[in-house]
Design goal:
- The chain is of the alpha/beta class and 202 residues long.
- The protein is built from eight helices and five strands; from the N terminus they run αβαβαβαββαααα.
- A five-stranded parallel beta sheet has the order 2-3-4-1-5, with helices on one face.
- It starts with 17 loop residues before the first helix and ends with a helix.
Length: 202
Amino acid sequence: PISPSPDPVAGHEYTDKFHEVCKVLERDPTGTAFIGKPGTGKTQCILHAAATTGKKVLNVQVDQGVEYTTQLTDIFEQLKPDILFLDDVDHIPQKGLFQLLDSLRKLPVHLIIAANKPEVLDEAIWRPGRIEHLFEFNLPDAAERKSILDRYGEIFEVPIPDSFLPASDGYSGAFLREMVRRLTFETPERAISQIEMLRKMR
């Protein structure tokens, strides 16, 4: 979709890098990489940055083994986005990824890739001309988790149990949101157990 709305609570993961991302978007088109575990705010950061800078972003979820070069070039010509955000590029075979990036870099667009597992990417991905900027997104610490839980508690209009903070160690913002959302229809104990099972399945 073009420029979907960012989550109003998201932001804790990237407050220290948000302004720098905006500065990158204000410059000439370049190649940028966002790396970090799922749910740590990579997509939300670019949505917020695009909204702040008045840029139009095309968010593309990349699937393994699919050839995107021709399709994305055609879509770009139709929609004319300022930012092309390719999510989950670590799912693409490396040869195909290099071909894709080299093709898209010819377009007048900010190309931003996101990877959950950067260690699987070939080192050649970081050579000059492909990626010039790198931003790392981390899981929230205890203070950040408490802030997120409290803010989602306000949105969903539910009190946050004391058990949620210690039980959420290592959780991303996306899982914290789901924990709180579940309080609207199930007990805190079940919400915790259900989210923990979902995390183990990822």
